[in-house]
Structures are given as structure tokens and as C-alpha cells.
């Protein structure tokens, strides 16, 4: 037990010593490879972050609509003024 703990601690120290430092610069981002699927997925990223996603944000109010992102749908569906 004690030997395995010593081996574990030693391997963790070696791993930390060999770790690379990350610098958040544009040059470091350019060195990362771009996934092959990225060119085909741009439309999906556009749809996910489109203008329609703005109503998904709301100020949290306790007791008003349980889910954070579902308030818009719930307000439209259960609003008596629009027949819901």
C-alpha cells in the first residue's frame, strides 16, 4: 500500500514537472489543429447562436417558471391573452 502511494505521488510529480504552460495568445491558437468536421459544422454553430437564442436569457426569479431556458415557450403557451 505504502509503495503504491509513493509510486503514485512520484508519477504525479513527474507529470506536473513535464506539463506545458499555456499562453493565451492568438499565435498559440493558430498552432492548434482545426478538426476536419469544423467546415461542415459551421451552419450548426450559426443556428445555435442565432438571434432566436436571445429570448432564452432571462433574469432569474424564484418561483417563476422552473427552467431557465424554457421561460419563453412557457410564457407563450400558457398566456391567457393569446389563447394559450
From TrEMBL:
Pfam families: Alpha_L_fucos (PF01120). Signal peptide: none annotated. Its EC number is 3.2.1.51. Keywords: Glycosidase, Hydrolase, Signal. GO terms for cellular component: lysosome. The keyword Acyltransferase does not apply. The keyword Signal applies. Residues 15-78 form the Glycoside hydrolase family 29 N-terminal domain. It is an enzyme of class 3 (hydrolase). GO terms for molecular function: alpha-L-fucosidase activity. GO terms for biological process: fucose metabolic process; glycoside catabolic process. Belongs to the glycosyl hydrolase 29 family. This is alpha-L-fucosidase. It comes from marine sediment metagenome.
